[in-house]
Amino acid sequence: MKRVSIKDVAKEAGVSASTVSYVLNSTPTESISPETARRVMDAVKKLGYIPNLNARSLSSRRSNMIGVLIPQTEPGKELMFSNPFYGELLSSIEYTARQHGYHLLLSGTKEDQDYLSIAQNRGVDGIIIVGTYPGENLNALKQLGVPIVLVDSYVKDEAFHTIGIEDREGARMATRYLIEKGHRQIAFVSGSIRENGVNIKRYQGYCDAMQSAGLSVDEQSIYSGTVDYDYGITAAKEYVARGKKQTAAFVSADVISMGLIKGLQQNHVRVPEDLSIVSFDDVYLARMANPALTTVHQDIGEKGKQAVQLILDAAGFKEHRHTECILPLSLVERESVREWRNQP
Amino acid sequence: MKRVSIKDVAKEAGVSASTVSYVLNSTPTESISPETARRVMDAVKKLGYIPNLNARSLSSRRSNMIGVLIPQTEPGKELMFSNPFYGELLSSIEYTARQHGYHLLLSGTKEDQDYLSIAQNRGVDGIIIVGTYPGENLNALKQLGVPIVLVDSYVKDEAFHTIGIEDREGARMATRYLIEKGHRQIAFVSGSIRENGVNIKRYQGYCDAMQSAGLSVDEQSIYSGTVDYDYGITAAKEYVARGKKQTAAFVSADVISMGLIKGLQQNHVRVPEDLSIVSFDDVYLARMANPALTTVHQDIGEKGKQAVQLILDAAGFKEHRHTECILPLSLVERESVREWRNQP
C-alpha cells in the first residue's frame, strides 16, 4: 500500500501542500484560520497521514523535546547524581530519545513553576518524572496537555503513565535470601522512608520476609538516612555504635552499600565474614565493589527506554491510553553474602 | 540610584511599556516593525536597562535554556555516563543552572543537525560542549549567535570560551610521583589518543616525566582503549599477557582504574603490592575503590559551575569577551601506590 503523502492530505482538504505543512508546524501564535486548520487536521485523521519524523518541517507541532524532571526532593540532597542510578537512567533516556531525533529538557527542580512555564512556552512532547513529586505540582503538570510518565512513583492517577518495579517484592526477595542463608538478625538500611516513595515499599518487603520467617523487626535494626555513599559510612559507624548486633543487612540502594562497606572496613568489620549485604538496583557500581555486591537487579536501561517509548507512542496520533508498566526483578549473587549456619 | 524600569525605556523610545515588553519577548516571526524594535533596543542600551530575570515576560529573548552537548564520539561508546565524570559534571551544570532559573537542553548527539535546528527554533541562551567535537560542526554552531563554552577541548578559536585543566601538566605530575616512589617501568593506560582531545595531552605529560627522568617509553608500556570500566579489565588481561613488565601505571581516568583493579584481582595481581596505580579525575568513585585511588584531583563541580557562569555572563547585556579558564590540579594520595625501592 502506498504511504499517504502530504499531497494526498492537501487534496483531501482542498488546500496547498505548503498550507498542510504550515498547519502541522504552526505554533498557536501564527495566523492561520481555525477553519483551514480544522479541514487539514480532519484530512490528516481521515487518511491516517503520519508525518515523516525525519523531515523536521512536517513534524506536526512536535518540539522534539522531552522534558525530564529528576526532582531533588531528598532532604539535604542537591546534586542529581549522588546516586548513580539517576545517571544510568538518564543515560538510557537520552540514548533512546536521541535514536528518535529527540533531545531532553532536563531539570532537577523542586520548584515546578519555572519548569512549567518553560515546558509550556517552548513546548515539550511529553514529560518523564523520576521519583516522588508533590501531588499539587502533578496537577499543574496535567494542564500542559502532554503525556506524562512517572518513573518509580506510587502516585496513582489515570492521567499519568507509570513505569516501575515491584519494590516490595524485590525487598522481600532480598531479605528472604538472607534468611535462607541462615541469618536471623538482619538490618534494614535505606534513604528516608516516605509516603509514595520506593523506600517505604522496600521497608514493607523487608518486614514481610522477616515476619514470614517468624523474626521480629526492632527499631535497633533500622537505619534510615539519605541515598548516598556518605550515609553508608555513617550507617557503618552507627552499626558499630549499636553493638554490631546484626549478621546481615538488606540495603535499599547499591550506592549506600558502597559507603557501608568502606565504613565497615574502617571499623575492622569485614564483608561478608562479619556482615553479609544484599543490596538493591544493580547499578554499574555493584560489580565494581569489593566485594562485588549481591543485589536485586533491575533493568535500569529498559526503564529509561520504555519511558521514552511511552512518550513517543502517546505523543503520536494515537488515543490516550493509561499504561502501567512493571519491569521484572531478579537477584544477582556475587560476593557480599556468606552462609551463617554456625556462630563463628 | 533608582533601578531603570521598563517605563523609563518606553518613555525614552517613545513607545508604550507593553511595546517594550513585546520587543524584549518577541521571536523573529512576530510582526513588529524593525524601526520600533531598534528604537526600543537603543533605549535599553542607553539606559542600561536590565530586565528582571524573575519576571519571565520581561526576559528579553532569553529562553532560560542552556544547551549541553556531551557528544559520544568515543568509538563504540553510546551511553553518556559510562564514565561517571560526565555525570558529575552534568550534575554541577544542572545545579548551577537551576539556581539561576535555567534548565538544560541535553544531547549526546554526534549528528549535530538535529540539535542545531532545535537550538535554533526553540532558542537556547548558550551552549556548553563537553569534550572533543568535530571542527566543521563547531562552525555551524557559531551561526547560532549565542555564547558557546567548550569544556576540556583543545580547539583554539576566539569565538568560543573555554574551560579546562592542564592535562599535560597533570599527567606529568602523576608520572613524576611514581618515579619519585622508585618506579622505573611505568605503563600508560588511557582511552583513544586523538588530536585535540585530553588523552593526547595526558600521554605527552607521561612522556615528559619519563624523558626528564631518563626513562624510555616503549610501545609495550602503552595501553589505549576506551574510557570505561570494561576497558580496565581488558587492560589488566593485556598487562598479564605482556608479561607484567611494569611495576606502576599512570591511568588517565579513574573509571578505567576501577576496572583495572578488578581485572588485576582476577589475575592474582595485587594493587599496590604488585602494581601501583596513579589515576586521573578524582571522581566520586576514586574514594570508593578498594584500594582507594591515588589520583590527580580536578574540581569537576567548579568546572560545571564556571561553564554555566560564562554563559550567563556572556548572554547578558555585556560585550563578547573571549574567556579562557584553566582550573588547578593537585595530587591526592590514597592507597593505590607503594614505594618501589627494592625488588621484592
Q: What report would you give on this structure?
A:
Two copies of one chain form a homodimer. Chain A has twelve helices and twelve strands. The first copy, chain A, has 344 residues and is of the alpha/beta class. The termini of chain A are far apart. In chain A, the strands form two sheets. The first copy, chain A, has a six-stranded parallel sheet with strand order 2-1-3-4-5-11, covered by helices on one side. The model of chain A is unreliable at 26-30 and 52-60 (pLDDT under 50). In chain A, helix 1 (6-13) crosses helix 2 (17-25). Chain A is elongated and about 85 Å long. The first copy, chain A, has helices at 6-13, 17-25, 34-47, 84-99, 112-122, 135-142, 167-180, 198-212, 229-241, 254-266, 285-288, 300-315, and strands spanning 65-69, 103-107, 127-130, 148-151, 161-165, 186-191, 222-225, 248-251, 276-281, 294-298, 324-327, 329-332. Chains A and B meet through helix 4, strand 2, helix 5, helix 10 and helix 11 of A and helix 4, strand 2, helix 5, helix 10 and helix 11 of B. Strand 2 of chain A pairs antiparallel with strand 2 of chain B, so a sheet runs across the interface.
Layout of helices and strands:
The structure is a homodimer of 344-residue chains.
Chain A: H1 6-13, H2 17-25, H3 34-47, E1 65-69, H4 84-99, E2 103-107, H5 112-122, E3 127-130, H6 135-142, E4 148-151, E5 161-165, H7 167-180, E6 186-191, H8 198-212, E7 222-225, H9 229-241, E8 248-251, H10 254-266, E9 276-281, H11 285-288, E10 294-298, H12 300-315, E11 324-327, E12 329-332
Parallel strand pairs in A: 1-2, 1-3, 3-4, 4-5, 5-11, 6-7, 6-8, 8-9, 9-10
Antiparallel strand pairs in A: 10-12
